Write the structure tokens for this entry.
Amino acid sequence: MKFKFVFSMILIGLMAACTPNKPETDNFSYTDEKFADIQMLRYKVEGFEQLSLKQKTLIYYLQEAALWGRDILFDQNGAYNLRIRKMLETVYTDFQGDRNGEDFKAMTEYLKCVWFSNGIHHHYGCNKFIPKFSETFFREALLAVDAQKLPLQEGQSVEQLCDEVFPVIFNPEVMPMRVNQKDGDDLLLTSAENYYGQGVTQAEAEAFYNKQRDPKDEQPVMYGLNSRLVKKNGKLVEKKWTTEGLYGGALSKIVFWLEKALPYADTEEQADVIKKLISYYQTGDLKTFDEYCIAWVKDIQGRVDFTNGFTEVYGDPLGIKGSWEAIVNFKDTVATERTEKLSQNAQWFEDHSPVDARFKKEECKGITAKVITAAILGGDLYPSTAIGINLPNSNWIRKEYGSKSVTIGNLTGAYNKAAHGNGFGEEFVIDNATLQLIKKYGDVCDDLHTDLHECLGHGSGKMLPGVTDDSLRAYGSTIEEARADLFALYYLADPKLVELGLTPDAEAYKSNYYTYIMNGLLTQVVRIKPGHNIEEAHMRNRALIAHWVYEKGKEQNTIELAKKDGKTYVKINDYEALRGLFGELLAEIQRVKSEGDFQGARALVEGYGVKVDATLHQEVLERYAKLNISPYKGFINPVYVAETDNEGNITDVKVTYGEKYDEQMLRYSRDYSGLPFINE
Ligand code: ZN
């Protein structure tokens, strides 16, 4: 599971005062270009130079492996994405006509969005981008460039390519949503993702996977995680993603670089991790994947760590198929002391949580938590990324072996730095006293919220016997995120945190309560277009929590939506009562999860987490628009250059930051393309 940036960036800009950031140096800037609703940022790999040559070499090889999966994600996100990207890129680099014209400029922006989202649907909202350039322009431009550079199939003309692909780009009715979550729809037939073949219905896919599951199996593999489910002669079959199967062109490159990395593994355990991952990519065996996950959880002694694989299931409306992602990182030893305090006390938190004793873990095993420095982001973590990750996702492995939880310190730091003084808090926070509270405590509590969510929240609680991971189906992700957030919210206010020296005093948590409720009731909808519902799991979870406590606290006037000069503000009248409500909801959400209560999950999510009040939405959008802030941010990766001796041995690795967004994307498309344009 990952903890997305959205929550924290809401706080950002309010809290630059005490963020320990180093001054920007001559050739490094945290912020880069803006386009559409996006601002590009850069992150700094502090401490890389101090690593040993062996560690630098390891990171170099692992970051190559991390970059090779990009095209897999493009194809997972939609069957036409690789072709569309290639068509756009060719016009972008080779078009000799009017490059200052409105059409070319609009196409450039569209391409930047496609790069950013790894496809033609918005990375967060999942809706298809609407091109602002004309079909005529694009067709003529494609006819004017060298046809050999276009993704033509055997015997296909450029005109035919346009006829085939243009409806996907230009017709808003065709593939309108990447992931459709609308209750009542056939979620597969109405979603454009490429995890299921043509004509596979939701009922068929659910039946297919339900049949594979044995409720008595206490160690079930993640059925369906690493394959596309297609219909062949009317029968459903899985096409596995392996070095010899679907996506083999990219996966064999990943394996090549993993093999290079192997001799430089930081620990013996890590060498085992790499070997198991290679074997899994070669065979597609999900039992091997579980063995890899277990080995990965056990590898905690080393400084360098990585993930590389089919991991999160947010991109599949049924929550089964894993999108490909990768990150390479190393431990930030100073900041990790904070998270270690939490994990050392994991059992205390479990024992004192407000959930029913039947749903508590008797023994919290091996929850490790650390703050890491990201060295490279790949696949579904690039360019839009998470600020925290907790893996593996398999529930039985988490129960038996624990999980590794990380917060990515240098990315959080970059967000903070980039948002310095953007005016957001001044506009949306009710009064100066609250604003000062947030300025004083916001960063400490935001980091802690992330730590609690990742280290303890996701790792807490247990399922009743016989309840499977997917019993909440489409609502599973939202309920799981709500559970982790509520765990964090409940404990942020606990005196235990002051006692552990994690919060400075008993007031600090209020800053986080305020910004959380403000976000959930008011400001997070800046990411939603008028008239649309909330779709994304993390956003649904925040709306669910905020609206639930608002409603339950109405009689006691715990939270108000106050009006001042015609503007709406969140006013929290009773922070202690609010904590009580968080505890109540945590208990209920844990019950829903532990019992696999689908109807309960549906009532909570549909009742509190989906709908947007149209009038309030309009007001928030207008106020936000005046601030001119890009609602989404993502990162340009650093570039690693290996210096070698005459035998080809790496003698040093240098990291540089100067590459521009379009340069990086074009380089990745050129140097890390291992897949055909059509993957069937
Ligand atoms: Zn999470």
Remarks:
- The pocket of zinc ion is lined by residues 1, 3, 453, 458, 481, 484 (CB under 6 Å).
- DSSP finds 25 helices and 15 strands in the chain.
- Residues 68 and 253 are 7 Å apart (CA to CA).
- The radius of gyration is 24 Å.
